[in-house]
Design a protein that fits this description.
This protein is an alpha+beta fold. The protein contains 9 helices and 21 strands. The protein has helices spanning 14-17, 111-135, 160-175, 187-195, 256-276, 283-319, 338-351, 381-390, 409-425, and strands at residues 12-13, 23-37, 40-47, 49-50, 64-69, 75-80, 82-85, 91-95, 104-109, 139-144, 149-153, 180-185, 209-214, 218-221, 236-244, 247-254, 327-333, 355-361, 367-373, 396-398, 402-407. The structure holds zinc ion (ZN).
Length: 426
Amino acid sequence: MLPDRITCSMSDRLYYADPSLSSFEARVSDIREVSRNQGRSLWQIALDRSAFYPTSGGQPHDTGMLTATSSGGAVLEAPILAVEEDEQGEVWHTTPKPLLAGTAVRGYVDWSRRRDHMQQHSGQHLLSAVVYRQLGAATVSFHLGELTSTIDLAREAISPEELERVEDAANEIIAEDRAITMRTIPRAEAEMLLAAGTLHKLPGRDGDIRLIEIDEIDLNACGGTHVRATGQIGGLLIRGTERMRQGIRVEFVCGMRAAVTARRDLATLTRAAAALSVGRLEVAEAVERLLAEGKAAHKARQKLTEEMAGYHASMLLLEYPSGQGRRVLRRTFTDRDANYLKLLASRLVASAAGTCVLLASTQEEPARVVMAASADAKVDCGSLLREALAAYGLRGGGSPGMAQGQIPNAQLDALFSGLEGRLTSH
Ligand SMILES: [Zn+2]
């Protein structure tokens, strides 16, 4: 016989009283289907009591497992993929396995994920408190991300020295292992604390207020999960700042994340140092030196290329002696790029009278085309090339003195023959 459907009631949130609880017993109080995708359904289960934390207050949800044992002794495992709360305050556990209302279950919270969240979240309380004490800047929002966390501060800017002082102070408080305690007080009492400036803000909802206190450092209304003492935060590493529209964003990591982040940075730095054959602390100078050398080398190469284009132009003009009327010089290169073509074209028409040039580079597909004419050649390269390319449905153009475009390699000869015909006919 199926058990009676239990009247839906708000689940008892076990993490409020004991944030270190990683497994618990409960009963399914409600179930609903949330999605059906390619034959796979997802369900949401409500429990009469739960240690699973739902996404809220900047802290992501827990994951884990629910198990139910049948009368025959078979154990059903329902992985918990997400946990959320609805507007009525009910906590819903998302799982691919349906569990009927009334089923007795055992819940297991993925503890490494939760401990990580508690470290980042408690670290945020500490960081915000230190920033407020040292710089007078209030925290306006908090985000706990996959890799790092951020707080947004109501402040225009923050200097590297200020960040260093804040980081040092936070780590000193971590080393002092100060107690982090929780208590619940009536809202009226909390409002008095707010008026006295002891509390900075209160949640909008009614009911008792849950206060989290870092001994002699910070008092905050918060519904999240926290470690028992600052020592369990394990360490706090600031990762940088970013200017936001309404203040400044500070990125940080705590606990194991700080070690993982520092390890990753070290690996990157070591790799860069090895590639540069310098010590890790000399990487920045070595990169600056390389950049300066690269810039100088680029300048020298540009000068050589220009000189080469000058000689190249002289040689080409010897191959195409000037005769009667306009001289048309046509050349296709497989090993020169469009920039070199432009340089060569400008040298050619600058040093020879009555000359038109048609140059192409087939280094890439489509081919790059450059057309140029000396001032006395009485040719409008821009409109001639534009018209010629338009016949192929292509675009291109430029000034009377120089124009450029692109055309598939296969059509290049036909394009040039047509242009050459027009240039030599009048
Ligand atoms: Zn909190």
